[in-house]
Batch of 2 targets.
Target 1
Amino acid sequence: MNKQKGRNTLRTMAGIVGLAFGVLVPFGAVQAAEKIKVGLMLPYTGTFAALGTAITNGFKQYVAEQGGNLAGREVEYFVVDDESDPAKATENANKLVKRDQVDVLVGTVHSGVALGMAKVARDNKTLMIIPNAGADDLTGPLCAPNVFRTSFTNWQPGFAMGKVAAERGHKTAVTLTWKYAAGEEAVNGFTGGFEAGGGKVLKQLTLPFPGVEFQALLTEIASLKPEAVYVFFAGGGAVKFVKDYDAAGLKASIPLYSSGFLTDGTLAAMGGSGEGLLTALHYADGLDNAKDKSFRDSYSTTYKMQPDVYAVQGYDAAQLLKAGLDAVKDGKLEQGAMIKAMAAATVDSPRGAFTLSKAHNPVQDIYLRKAEGQENKVVSIAAPKLADPARGCRM
Ligand code: BEZ
């Protein structure tokens, strides 16, 4: 963050010049804290576009609640649409880190893109906050002091859902997901929880991301006759899958379970096909806490829609950044002090307060939710204070 020295020097010189010409330069203006340059690298087009927008909205809502700044610092945004395209991840992250010289990278949604982004953050020692992508490795073997996550690992909701499916008495299951890190890790989490509870996964089916040609796979599921189906889909793909599952007549015969991304922010578009679905996630509608109530009130007033898990994760990314900035109030953006404060923070999230594990991933309750109308109503806590095992993280 040495570039900040230049900005400070400029401000000091402005003060001296002001005095020399008899212009009154308020002391506070010369001493004003350096601004913070935030690079938002998120999907604003494609199947995850709505997710990127919700994260951005949530982040900006928290900044607005703080009076338009964070810990007294002006926030300057630099925005890149990553299109959920892993092939463009390095180039896009470099635009923000090298060209725009951001102080913090905030992103992204897609696990494969986030893995590329995190490499850029590690190589350049840029602070990074992941407001969604669940790739287990980011807070596993690839964990780093400057990389934080305010969302989840793909393992966390998958494992909790597997545990619940076994507790509900199912003995066999088939899984289906897009073939990429998030889907495969969510399925592994489910399989771990389900098989630990005495279930057996008969087959793991996949299709390429972001494909939505489900018919042949649905036919195969029907012929395998499992007692339950577990899927990982999100955004536009989730809507198409749930409608197709229903239209194929499977919803009535084989219970469908998922990580909550299937039904978060998508129930309205599913037009009733999602009704009654049980999912597991670290956020739910109907949580009984004051923070969630005020968050939802102000989000719906500002954006004219209800928030979802992605908005919460974006809001919490801004909260975590503020915790770091509080540690360097009025001073230089000293990364070491920020990292220390962020690692020790308790984030007062609408999902319920959470702390971070040593690997910088939330330790959090995973809720069992039931889709009712356009809400994912909390049913119970499926896995309290669940910490990702963070295998391979040496920090
Ligand atoms: C992921 O790629 O990690 C992801 C994408 C959408 C929802 C949840 C996870």
Note: DSSP finds 13 helices and 15 strands in the chain.
Target 2
Amino acid sequence: MSKKWYAAKSPEVSEREKSNYTLARKAAAEGFVLLENNGVLPLPACKIALYGMGARKTIKGGTGSGAVNERYSVPIEKGLENGGYTVTSKSWLDDYDFEYDEKYHAWEAEIAKKTAGMAPHEIFAAAKGDPFRFPAGRLVNDEDVRASDTDTAIYVIARQAGESHDRRLEPGDWYLTDVERENLLKLAVAYTKTVLVINVGGPIELSILDEVDGIDAVVFYGQGGMEGGNAFADVLSGKTDFSGRLTSTWALKYEDYPNASTYGHVNGDLDNESYLEGIYVGYRYFDSYAVKPRYPFGYGLSYTKFSLACSDFALQGTRVQAKVQVMNTGATNVGRQVVQLYLSCPVGRLEKEKKRLVAFAKTRELVPKASEELVLEFDMTSAASYDEAVLAWVLEKGAYLLQMGVDAANTEIVAALEMDETVTCEQCVACCAPKQRVDELPLPLPTAYTSLPEGLRRLTIDTKSFSPVTHDYGEPRVVESKREKTLLDTLAPQEMAELLCGGGVLKQGQHNVTGAGGKTTIDLANKGIGNIVLSDGPAGLNIINEITMDENGFERAVNIPEKYKAYAAAAKNMIGEGGEPAYRYATAWPVHLVLAQSWNTELLHQVGEAVGREMLEFGITIWLAPGMNINRNPLCGRNFEYFSEDPLLSGKMAAAITKGVQSHQGVGVSLKHFACNNQEDNRTQCSSNINERALREIYLKGFQIAVTESQPWTVMSSYNKINHIYTANNYDLCTKLLRCEWNFGGLVMTDWGGRADPVLCAGAGNDLVMPGNDEVRQQIAAAVSSGTIDDVTLRRSAARVLHIVLKSDIYQQ
Ligand code: BGC
């Protein structure tokens, strides 16, 4: 490995940054969703009375590993001004700043008190679980309204969330605070046009919309990354159409979610989470149980109107192709539409959800009266259901109804695909099944369709076209390259064991990127094996952006971000001067949820490519992203770090961003958190208790798609247990499913400092324990000496770690 300076020497904005900032702006604009609009939008440049906690302090992303230390971030106020609007409510905003600062400093002092005497990593962990809650600001008064001198108001509600902590059913989180309610009621009356902007990583309670008429438009901003404010002005003004569509269902009220009363802290049981809704997650539930949502999955308004016509179908073996003609039927605005294809599967021995997404596509920008033919394709095997009785993916006989639409609640049946016998698509073995079945909610209504449109097109699928897949569940083999074999042959078992444990605290000579999440071991440097660096994700690269580097490559942080100041005191050795200044300005992208709302896999590929370029510049080998857990309940503190409630959409988005990153040589991703990490409170001890069908069809499906379509370099197991077994100790999950069924050839690592037994990881197929420390190292070493970790297991996991280390860019110099 040759030494290279993995940082910019100049603080100037680089060409790479400029092009990434442009892409971040485009991505945010494509990901915002217009929820309501009575015609007030688009809004040409004008005076705006801007209020609300997210107006000037716009939240660009979450806390914890989902954070990024960007060069700048454009809040909504700034974005509006850049876009030619004049903000005329400065005195309210200045008062807000004052209150914010006061409360922030009080919170900071609280954290300092709570963490006094702790080691730096403990401080970070403690502070993660206690994010700062933004104050609501003061009531808007008549003087504010008069001074604002405009008929247009925008009110921005913001909520901060992040790892280690679930959202709460409280005012200031799920519910509006009294101040927010009163302010919105006031603005609705005082201004002719009122726009509500939701700067939150997921839904909030919106019953206020049913109580008052004067809220004219609602925008789901989510968390739009560093260019969010500019992107907001782009969509507000109509420079860009709103082409984002929801990737999760927004209920009318919290109680409408199937697991509302049992989720996490709500029922007080943080140790066991019962996945009692089975496969009925998100729209699958709302649809099948006939519960009306506020905004369905896939929903979003545009500035124009579109017509959809299914022009053609084709069936080739098991592949289905539908051609959909989309036309912009509006008169003035350019727009893009997202077309969604759903399938309603016949109900046989197995219950089925009313419909499930099987394909989607987005048009290019269409000018009025222009049209585009979209080709949507899927394989019938992707619509198979998992039959626990025969341990196989099956397609039951009957009619499969193809539905086309623009959201899950607005679809039209366009064809019937008929099968005259039941086929087995894939024979499996039991994996992660609970000892005792989870009692699932009964279906109140039949989900099968009884009346079909007249003249419906029917195609018959020849069941002989299916060739059932079987798997070899024998111990997976690792094929070592000549170089890997030679290196491994020189290692004694105890040395090989080093590779199974992360590099832990910084050591002399270790390749380091300040602020990055972790490193592999440097203790084998004398054997020619250096270390690589792994960095969070998923909103960008989470590292320190200003450092100094001395002649030995030792780095120090110069610019400790504001949000770390509260607990950076103990990390003093990281801070300071000495050496030459160096810079690593990473892009803060919109959070994954917003990226996914673009429904644009090409865009996610571009974002991935851009992240990959930054990794090469900064000397980072693995991006600890994409995050791809399922949005199961809106209170999960990390939903914004994930794509959707739907496994197909999650899988496709993860595959696209992975392919983008890995289109560069020498860098890779880590799909996380594998799997069922849907609760943040007590996340390291909670057991997700779930039946195998729901596990496979909903929570694993997205990972399966991403693994098989994009071959990620690594996968990160989650903190939680599945049916009482820690995922990192779970052979069924990390070996049988991941490697035997999906042919994953990469490395599996633990999440940071989880509670799974490090000694049982390698045997289960979880090769690397992160971030590594002396205790874990000693435990693994002792297990190798005693034979608890046998030679074959040791060599296999060591080979997988070495393989990734050698694939790294830092070895390609
Ligand atoms: C998070 C992971 C993250 C890791 C490293 C953990 O607390 O759960 O998502 O990648 O830290 O920072």
Note: Residues 65, 163, 517, 536, 624, 672, 751-752 surround beta-D-glucopyranose (CB under 6 Å).
